[in-house]
Amino acid sequence: MDLLSAIDAIEHRGDRIGDKDLSHRPVGATAPTSYPARVPALEHVASGKVREIYEVDSEHLLFVATDRISAYDVILNQLIPDKGKVLAGLSLHFFDLLDTPNHLVSTDLSGVDGLSEDELDDMKGRAMVVRRAQVIPVECVVRGYLYGSSWREYRDGGGPTTEHLPPGLKLADRLPEPIFTPATKATTGHDENITESETRNLLGDDLYEELRKRSVDIYLRASEHAAKKGVILADTKFEFGFAGDELLLIDEVLTPDSSRYWPADEWVPGRDVPSFDKQYVREWLDTTDWDHSPPPPDLPDDIVEGTRTRYVEAYDRITGASFADYLARAG
Ligand code: PZK
Q1: Measured between alpha carbons, how far is residue 176 from residues 173, 211, 275 in Å?
Q2: Is the pLDDT of residue 23 over 90?
Q3: Cα–ligand 1 centroid distance for 53 (angstroms)
Q4: Helices marked H in the chain — which ranges?
Q5: What is the DSSP string of 268-290?
Q6: Residues lining ligand 1, CB < 6 A?
Q7: How many CB atoms lie within 10 A of CB 50?
Q8: pLDDT of amino acid 34
Q9: Which of 22, 49, 246, 251 has the most ligand 1 atoms within 8 A of CB, as the residue to mutate?
Q10: Atom 20, ligand 1: which residue's CA is nearest?
Q11: Are 135 and 211 in contact (CB under 8 A)?
């Protein structure tokens, strides 16, 4: 089976493994948006916890990173000013650095008809016109360190992500080599790790090999880049899609929302490692009696501001550039 028929076959499976309906996801009842969620001129295509997608034309979408933040899988009630711009700026940085076929068309929105001045102003620095692709319904996760769901599988006797791991590893250990550990969107709202053979059955061997090779290659290059800045890229998740017969990297790439970034000097194998961006807000949430089911508590202003500072620091540190300059260039 060639790659395109493989995708066709996946799209037509009855079990909706690639279903992008996010309505089942746990979200806070009063989750806000940082710009009109409805952009009257454009058809709304998809909502994520923190991203929105609109239709530009039959071949293009408008991909928007909002200032929403989630913690413990719940969207918080407060926006983090500029968070969406930090994430968009990081995606753009890596699209440029990696120079691998991707969905980015333009950050210039002047070709998108019907946006008001206010909408244009709000979207500056956070929106990109992208090529519409047929999304491959597998999350391409690459792990260089043992953490998160993979650590829990390992500790509890093994699972899909630990098939190829040696015994004796500790929490947060660096792996002998990066591993490709795909996942699918499960109906619970959590990604579900799947084995190599499950993934091969879904995608076919050719597409499996292609996605593994591209994902691991991108991880290696990005983690070398991050290491030079004193940052560990512990793991990351990519999405790919086909535009015609071209396999494109889509979605956000190498952002703190899609990746686990650690300050290198805080990494101690055997211990929990604080994440760059969300640790601050999680630590505050942990001082409350919140049980992680909606609604979440309101964040005090100083926690909002401190969280923004962490995101801006992450941008500056990971890109080696200045977020203030990014904002100035975005207008
Ligand atoms: C696409 N998602 C995930 C869901 C989000 C993102 N270039 C593309 N072509 C077609 N579809 C998508 C993309 C991209 N990127 C990505 N869903 C569809 C998703 C909800 C909100 F921002």
Answers
A1: 9, 20, 22
A2: no
A3: 6
A4: 3-11, 83-98, 117-123, 148-155, 196-203, 205-227, 279-285, 301-319, 323-330
A5: -TTS----TTTHHHHHHHTTS--
A6: 20, 46-48, 51-53, 61, 63, 103, 130-133, 135, 241, 250-251
A7: 23
A8: 52
A9: 251
A10: 48
A11: no
For residue 231, the one-letter residue type is: V
Query: Per the structure block, which two tokens stand in for 31?
Result: 């989750």
Return the amino acid letter for 95: F
Ligand 1, atom 16, lies closest to the CA of 251
Could you tell me the distance, in angstroms and rounded to a whole number, from the CA of residue 46 to the centre of ligand 1?
7
Which is the closest atom of ligand 1 to the Cα of 133?
9
Amino acid at 24: H
Q: Identify whether the C-beta of residue 73 lies closer than 8 Å to the C-beta of residue 60.
A: no
pLDDT tens, position by position, 131-183: 999 999 999 999 999 999 999 999 999 999 999 999 999 999 999 999 999 99
Nearby residues of 79 by Cβ (< 8 Å), 6 or more positions away = 32, 34, 66, 67, 68, 69, 304
Q: In this structure, how many other beta carbons lie within 10 angstroms of the beta carbon of residue 47?
A: 17
* Per-residue pLDDT tens digits for 43-98: 999 999 999 999 999 999 999 999 999 999 999 999 999 999 999 999 999 999 99
**Strand 74-75, strand 44-47: pairing:** unpaired
**What dihedral angle (degrees, nearest 10) is formed by the CA atoms of 246, 140, 179, 195?**
-110
Q: 129: helix, coil or strand?
A: strand
As given in the structure block, the two tokens for residue 255 are 């952002």
What CA–CA distance (Å, rounded) separates 331 from 326? 9
The size of the chain, in residues, is 331
Do residues 181 and 142 lie in contact, with contact meaning Cβ atoms separated by under 8 Å?
Answer: yes
- What residues are paired with 57 via a beta bridge? 60
If one residue of 250, 252, 253, 257 were mutated to test the ligand 1 pocket, choosing by the most ligand atoms within 8 A of its CB, it would be 250
Look at residue 190 and give its three-state secondary structure: coil
